[in-house]
Amino acid sequence: MEHEILNVFLANQWLTIPIFIILVIGVTLFWFGGLMAALTALGNNRWAWGLLSIVLGPITGLPYALIHKEASYPKSLMIKGLIFLLAGLVLSLLAWAIT
Question: Tell me, what DSSP letter sits at residue 99?
Fold first, then answer.
């Protein structure tokens, strides 16, 4: 299975590289949003949220940003990152299904 996927993506490098770039942008936005949520939590004296978000990144940063209204900027970064991640995953599945 892995060998087949690798052959598909190596044969279609013109499609693989842009999909990989989209995935990297998504991961970067998602992780950076988690760190921004940690800074926002620490700045608002929510120490538990802040320290957990530093350690776990967007895993705890996204719930914090969804609960607290002052974290609208980290929330927008993480949601955009999720959109990019999902778009990259859908495009990679389409590329695999087409070829």
Answer: -
Residue 83 resides in a domain: yes
Q: What are phi and psi of 19, to 5 degrees?
A: -65, -40
pLDDT 10s per residue in the chain (99 long)? 778 777 877 887 888 889 999 999 999 999 999 999 999 999 999 999 999 999 998 899 999 999 999 999 999 999 999 999 999 999 988 887 877
> Which domain does 49 fall in, by range?
33-94
Q: How many structural domains are present in the chain?
A: 1
Residues sharing a CB contact under 8 Å with residue 76, sequence separation 6 or more, in sequence order: 33
Please answer whether residues 23 and 89 qualify as being in contact, where contact means their C-beta atoms are separated by less than 8 angstroms: yes
